[in-house]
TrEMBL record, chain A:
Keyword Cell membrane attached: no
Keywords recorded for this protein, A-Z: Periplasm, Signal, Transport
Signal peptide: 1-24
Cross-referenced Pfam families: SBP_bac_8
Subcellular location: Periplasm
Listed name of the protein: ABC transporter substrate-binding protein
From TrEMBL, chain B:
Organism name: Fructobacillus papyrifericola
Annotated ranges, domain ABC transmembrane type-1: 58-247
SUPFAM superfamilies, per database record: MetI-like
Protein name per its UniProtKB record: ABC transporter permease
Compartments where found: Cell membrane
Record field: transmembrane: 7-28, 57-84, 96-121, 127-147, 175-196, 229-250
Matches recorded under PROSITE patterns: ABC_TM1
UniProtKB/TrEMBL annotation, chain C:
Family classification: Belongs to the binding-protein-dependent transport system permease family. CysTW subfamily.
Keyword Transmembrane found: yes
Main localization, broad class: membrane
Membrane topology reported for the UniProt record: Multi-pass membrane protein
Localization, UniProt: Cell membrane
PANTHER family in alphabetical order: INNER MEMBRANE ABC TRANSPORTER PERMEASE PROTEIN YDCU-RELATED, INNER MEMBRANE ABC TRANSPORTER PERMEASE PROTEIN YDCU-RELATED-RELATED
Record-annotated membrane-spanning stretches: 12-33, 65-87, 94-118, 138-162, 202-221, 241-262
Keyword Disulfide bond: no
Protein name: ABC transporter permease
InterPro entries: MetI-like (IPR000515), MetI-like_sf (IPR035906)
Domain ABC transmembrane type-1: 61-263
Keywords carried by this UniProt record: Cell membrane, Membrane, Transmembrane, Transmembrane helix, Transport
Length: 360, 267, 275
């Protein structure tokens, strides 16, 4: 009994000590200049902004930034929709902007409060998911493509999605675990759209996809970049962001977007309707729109920036990297995902699930 | 026999610590990934030291895990006593099944269900809601660890104690609790483990002012988890190791002073 | 006397029951309602019909049970001898804590470490090739998946078994040996039966959560094994079809309750009185 009590008290003391430490750290972090006393809650993917940008922003404006993270668009959607807490600025991807807009979760942007919109590349404005950018401001963008090991695969063999079906890649291909992307890439290889909503087309795509199985070594998620960097697979279907990350770890890797087109994804800044500090949210959007800030951020993250003025400030080696800033001819063939209704989301997912289960 | 035992122990500890060692070694890598050791450096420890946001998250995580495990251990022990003392088999069985519901439900389900419940109740999401959720899903593991200890307990002990005039409170504190102490400790440590590793439930029920290490690490997966986290894990492991050593040294000393354990006395 | 005891029991039941109501029964009801509430169709059993007539989902159910079973068996095979060895050590409590310590490191991070260890150029492959086995594909195999799953579950099995073993009266094995039983016989006829409660707890704490395992199946298994946990995760986070996700959850919980009911023995009566 004594032992139990002693341990109980010891744990209590430990908790108290940690609370004290926590308090001390909060006190030391508090900005003396925060006369406005406003704290902005930024809801973003983990490690998806250069931390020094946030501290510079705090110093310059006096707002405090509370950086909270999520790991998937859908999880973030659930949190914002369900309420119980408020976020002032969030970063959904393209189709999710449409979904949030439809669900009435987004606040309409007051264009008079926005600055630096001219810096953004017109290519990424006025997209189908948000015509006229009434609700969203593009942040980073990228493509879906093929990441391959230059020592074992010839890049010139990968001009089309269909080349993945070639016998020579038997058991060498990794796929990203996403129904929309893998079926989308199959549809593209059949000359269809990534937003195809036709049962026959989807069935045909599923049929073609199942014949890819002998080539598929594994279907994985975010860890795909580690696998490719370690040489577990010789080629992989994945996003440009993942590819960039893998190439940084292993310089034998290269990334290409097949000529038959691909998906264009965009991550965007939005203000949820439930935001409590909209003023501060506008301030941060405007700050991130600044060319010098956006360029700094792009160098830290490594993704392609949607800010044209910032792009001009990037080192030439990055500007000329055709894999991540593809030439106009490729850009013209990129398609943005439309938000599917639940029927089609389910249909794509079921088709992909059957594909995955067909593997043994 | 001794050799077989020793080699099995060595094998098991090798297995347990191989990935840990791997993480620790790479925390000193001057490169950026857990692959191709580029050279020895403390650079990731420096990054960590400057990242006050992450340090605060670590503190939050520890405070949450310790408090949740502590509360869950108390309620879980009470729960185990309740199940143990229930006479009707059907009720007992139903209680046990209900107890295990949270263990078998995937985290996403628990998280989503708790989120709906808590927002329906109009609770403001934050530390308290996370604490409640953690306590809730830690209780079953404590019950599972304590219950067998109760079932093994010699019923004659309790009867003898009451016959000799001990009040129920005395029976509890002087007989029952000491006998089940190992189970309670096991429950506490396992609860701590579950709490530290939980991502999905925490994510759903947390508010804009509170985050834990697991949420932070999982949400970094898309951009790649940096070696800063390795450095952090190394430090935490080192501290835990020191704590374990200190606790052990302390309990050894106490045992030295009081050689007869209750169990031996009872025998 | 008995009255106070009864009041105590009632108080325990009250506290524990309150928790059960708020955090188990309420979410369970919510889950049940959600699983019956098909979007656009109102209340119907359609989800359940879909589940039990769909080949993929039934295959996943079988997969889940089979792999949870394998994981439990492997974990038990490693843990039982380990627990016995631990109880014989001088500083056994210290070593036991060392078994728990690795579980406090983030799971995702440990899994990444396994990817490094089991990879093509990883340590294990290097060791294998230096022993003359040559390179072998370890990742994305069932073996790797089971190894990592067992690794994660190990402490949850060791702890209850260790506790049960410590409770065995040391005189009993000694007596068994004195009476001429071999070590193996002692283990089989004395130690194993007496440690059964611990083994049962261990099996429960490993088997039940293993049914809904999902992360490892993707990270280490490369989605070669797909369990119900994966499906639930997808329905909640990808397709956002919570209704169907809840249905799978309900099926899983019923399966768990059935397993529990079947594995509890009715030997309560002949139990006590070993001392």
């Amino acid at each position: 009994m004594k032992k139990l009590l002693m341990t109980f008290l010891a744990v209590c003391c430990l908790i108290l000590a940690l609370l004290g430490l926590d308090f001390a750290l909060t006190a030391s972090r508090a900005q003396p200049s925060s006369q406005k006393g406003q704290t902005l809650t930024f809801y973003n993917w983990g490690d998806y902004i250069d931390p020094s940008i946030l501290s510079d922003f705090e110093k310059e404006t006096g707002y405090k930034v509370n950086y909270q993270t999520f790991d998937s668009n859908e999880a973030m959607y659930t949190k914002i929709q369900q309420g119980g807490t408020n976020y002032d600025l969030a970063v959904p991807s393209d189709y999710m902007v449409a979904k949030m807009k439809k669900a009435g979760l987004l606040a309409k942007l007051d264009k008079s409060k926005l600055t630096g919109m001219d810096n953004l590349n017109k290519q990424f404005l006025n997209q189908s998911f948000d015509r006229g950018n009434q609700y969203s401001v593009p942040y980073f963008w990228g493509t879906l493509g093929i990441l391959y090991n230059t020592k074992r695969v010839k890049g010139s063999d990968l001009t089309s999605w269909s080349s993945l079906w070639s016998d020579r890649y038997k058991n060498r291909l990794l796929l990203v675990d996403s129904a929309r992307d893998i079926l989308g890439m199959t549809l593209l290889s059949q000359g269809k759209s990534v937003n195809d909503q036709n049962k026959a087309d989807l069935a045909a795509a599923q049929g073609k996809l199942s014949s890819l199985m002998p080539n598929v070594k594994a279907i994985v998620g975010d860890e795909l970049k580690i696998y490719m960097a370690q040489g577990e697979g010789d080629l992989a279907v994945t996003y440009s962001g993942e590819a960039k990350n893998a190439i940084e770890k292993n310089s034998d890797l290269a990334y290409t977007v097949p000529e038959d087109g691909s998906n264009l994804w965009l991550d965007n800044l939005v203000i949820p309707k439930s935001a409590e500090h909209k003023q501060a949210a506008y301030a941060l959007i405007n700050y991130l729109n600044r060319p010098d800030v956006a360029a700094k951020n792009a160098k830290y993250i490594g993704y392609a920036t949607a800010n044209q003025a910032a792009y001009q400030q990037l080192p030439k080696s990055i500007q000329n990297d055709k894999a991540f800033y593809p030439k106009q001819a490729i850009l013209d063939k990129l398609q943005v995902y439309q938000n599917f209704n639940s029927y089609w989301t389910q249909a794509y997912n079921d088709a992909f699930l059957e594909f995955k289960l067909g593997k043994s | 026999m001794k050799i077989i035992e020793r080699s099995w122990l060595t094998f098991c500890f090798f297995l347990l610590y191989a990935p840990i060692l791997f993480l620790v070694v790479y925390s000193f890598n001057s490169g950026e990934a857990m692959q191709g050791f580029a050279g020895f450096s403390f650079v990731h420890y420096q990054e960590l030291w400057q990242d006050t946001r992450l340090l605060q998250i670590v503190l939050n995580t520890l405070i949450l895990a310790l408090s949740a495990a502590l509360i869950a251990t108390v309620i879980g022990t009470i729960g185990a006593l309740a199940i143990y003392r229930t006479e009707r088999q059907l009720l007992k069985q139903s209680l046990l099944s209900l107890n295990n519901v949270l263990l078998v439900s995937p985290d996403v389900i628990i998280g989503a269900a708790f989120l709906i419940l808590m927002t329906a109740l109009g609770l403001k999401l934050g530390f308290l809601t996370v604490l409640m959720a953690h306590v809730a899903f830690l209780i079953p593991i404590v019950v599972l660890m304590v219950l067998p200890k109760l079932q093994e307990m010699n019923r004659d002990l309790v009867l003898a104690a009451s016959d000799l005039g001990a009040k129920p409170t005395e029976v509890l504190t002087k007989v029952t609790l000491p006998v089940i102490t190992p189970g309670i400790f096991a429950g506490f440590f396992m609860a701590l483990t579950y709490s530290l590793d939980d991502f999905a439930v925490t994510f759903f029920v947390t508010g804009n002012g509170f985050s834990t290490l697991a949420v932070e690490v999982y949400s970094r997966a898309r951009q790649g988890v940096s070696l800063e986290i390795n450095a952090l894990s190394t430090i935490m492991l080192g501290l835990a190791f020191i704590l374990v050593l200190a606790y052990y040294a302390y309990s050894q000393k106490r045992r030295g002073q009081k050689p007869t354990k209750l169990k031996e006395k009872v025998k | 006397m008995n009255k106070t005891k009864k009041r105590f029991t009632e108080a325990y039941l009250g506290i524990y029951g309150l928790w059960l109501l708020a955090f188990v029964v309420a979410p369970l009801l919510l889950l049940l309602i959600q699983s019956l509430n098909v979007p656009g169709k109102g209340f119907s059993l359609e989800n359940y019909r879909d589940f039990f007539t769909s080949g993929p989902y039934l295959a996943m159910t079988v997969n889940s049970i089979w792999y949870a079973f394998l994981i439990t068996v492997i974990t038990l095979a490693i843990s039982y001898p380990l627990a016995i060895c631990l109880t014989k050590l001088k500083h056994r409590q210290f070593w036991l804590l060392l078994v728990i310590l690795p579980t406090w490191i983030n799971l995702l991070l440990k899994t990444y470490a396994f990817i490094g260890l089991l990879g093509k150029g990883g340590l294990l492959n290097q060791a294998l090739s230096s022993m003359g086995f040559g390179h072998s594909q370890l990742l994305f195999t069932n073996g790797a998946f089971l190894l990592v799953a067992a690794y994660i579950e190990l402490p949850f099995m060791v702890l209850p078994i260790y506790n049960a073993l410590l409770d065995i009266d040391p005189l009993l094995p000694a007596a068994s040996r004195d009476l001429g039983a071999s070590s193996f016989d002692t283990l089989k006829k004395v130690i194993w039966p007496l440690s059964m409660p611990g083994v049962k707890t261990g099996v429960q704490t490993v088997f039940i959560p293993s049914l809904s395992l999902f992360m490892i199946t993707r990270l280490i298994g490369g989605n070669k094994v797909i369990t119900l946990g994966t499906a639930i995760e997808e329905h909640f986070l990808v397709t956002q079809n919570w209704s169907f996700g809840s249905t799978i959850g309900v099926v899983l919980i019923i399966a768990m309750a059935l397993t529990m009911a079947l594995t509890t023995d009715k030997k309560k009566t002949r139990k006590r009185g070993r001392k």
